[in-house]
Specification:
The chain has helices at residues 9-23, 28-44, 49-56, 58-66, 79-94, 102-118, 123-128, 135-140, 148-156. The protein is mainly α. It folds into 2 domains: 3-70, no CATH class; 79-156, no CATH class.
């Protein structure tokens, strides 16, 4: 819709405002009512055909959007999944995909995930998260060391933990 409204910024801002109002409904009933009102608003407005069709498709998708209200503590957007996946996609594109066998590809993705979990937050994010340095600390509630690389090395080794029991040797 954004691309279809490039030449009409007033229409784009009006649609965005209406859609955000719809998005911020607090209950299923309120969402359904706001969607009905929004679609009535769309019907009486002289909108370009392609934009009008896309907006009217929301009617059929309403039950899917309403399912989000069954889980009040859940996020309504997929940003927390999309952003790391976009990062992974860009990295893989820059690497020109995988080379070698399945095992090496799996190890590459695991290494990227490990680095992603220990990458330091920027200064602004650290301030918002009360000094939290990285996703590992955010998830676990502690850090081994203030330096991100040492934190990674300690967490990925058995340093600080008892070694795993060795299986009995048979001769």
């Amino acid at each position: 819709m954004r691309d279809g409204c490039r030449s009409k910024p007033d229409l784009r801002y009006g649609l965005a405002e209406e859609l955000w109002h719809l998005y911020h409904a607090e209950t299923k009933r309120q969402f359904a009512q706001r969607l009905r009102r929004f679609l009535e608003w769309v019907d009486i407005r002289p909108l370009p055909g392609a934009i009008k069709q896309r907006l009217l498709r929301l009617r059929a998708k309403s039950p899917y959007f309403q399912r989000a209200y069954d889980f009040p503590d859940a996020y309504r957007t997929s940003n927390q999944v999309d952003r790391p996946m976009n990062h992974l996609d860009r990295t893989l594109f820059a690497m020109q995909g995988f080379h070698g066998n399945w095992r090496s590809a799996e190890r590459s993705v695991r290494a990227m995930a490990l680095l992603f979990n220990f990458h330091p937050f920027c200064r602004k994010t650290r301030a918002q998260k009360n000094g939290c340095l990285c996703p590992f600390e955010q998830l676990n509630g502690f850090r081994y060391h203030d330096d991100w690389l040492r934190n990674l090395l300690i967490a990925s080794s058995l340093n600080g933990r008892r070694p795993l029991p060795k299986p009995p040797q048979t001769n």
